[in-house]
Amino acid sequence: MEANPVSKDIHDPVTRARFAAIHIKGLCQVWELCSYIHCCRLGCQEGLGAKIIDVPPVYVGIWGITSAHQRPDRVAHVCRFFASYLVSRGTRYLWNSFSSNLRSTDVGVGQGSALSPVLSALYLAPVIWLFEWQAVHVGCNVLSYIDDSTLIQRKMLEDNLPPLHEAYKIMFSLFDVFGLVMEHNKSKLFHFTCQQDDANPLTVLDFEPFTAASPLKPKTFWRYLGFYFDWTLSFREHIRYYSTKAISTVRTMGMLGNLLQGLTPKQKRILYWACIVPIAMCRFCLWYNDFAKCKGHLQSLTKMQRCAALWIIGAFRTSPTGGCKALAGLIPIHLHLRKLASQAMY
Known about the structure:
Keywords: Membrane, Transmembrane, Transmembrane helix. By secondary structure, the protein is an alpha+beta fold.
């Protein structure tokens, strides 16, 4: 309710880089990630690469905002706007017809509040605007999701590190001006590359603990907004993680209920479609392509489906896979993916 009015183009208070804080539906970050994945794949075709620094999270709490508002360089009406939400607040407890006395709650907006992402977007919007203006010569793109920011540089692998180093310093100085503290030990480095060798250069950020003595080492895979990315965008790590999670869920279901404890095959099949399939197919639109060969991806998902079929009908491990799936009423995993892809809205 609060985000819709401020996301109109006539006001434009929040930069496009803070995509997920503007659109509450939660789908915009998927489209933004898909666009950057598309750019990375096009760059790989041209022999280029993309390197990403996952900027450490910054929690915008009441004390950080209050300390920042005490700085003389902050605009007065901006301070009054945040103060109207964060100070001079009170609450009372109701139980049936009983009402307690008014109690002071000058603690700001809680982290789990629905208003917290909106205030975070409004508060950090000047940081993103200033970064895009000051770092225009660096050529880095920035993405921001509530308190999680990402710096992206698309050049040759050996030319990516100096611009990212400078962009990181600019981001740190802007956060410091706004009274925010970056947790440098949570910074992550990752790069997309089409090279087949093991070239993975280290990065010096000039901030503890990633100095020249102990530079930042790139990750072999990168988790961002629930996605697992690898260097070549094959999404093997993503599928391995969620298929393993689905298999663990199947085995947990076996401990919670089986044929001896009153669950019929029909009930277990309902549990499979309601609880296990959404985990295994999580974000499948990002990696599934009906025209591409996905045998490696389907192998782990087929293993998960076999475990589910054995649990549904209560068969032995040596039972044939095809017969178990037929008795359990489970269609092959590649046909199920094709059905989901035909029903998805791209």
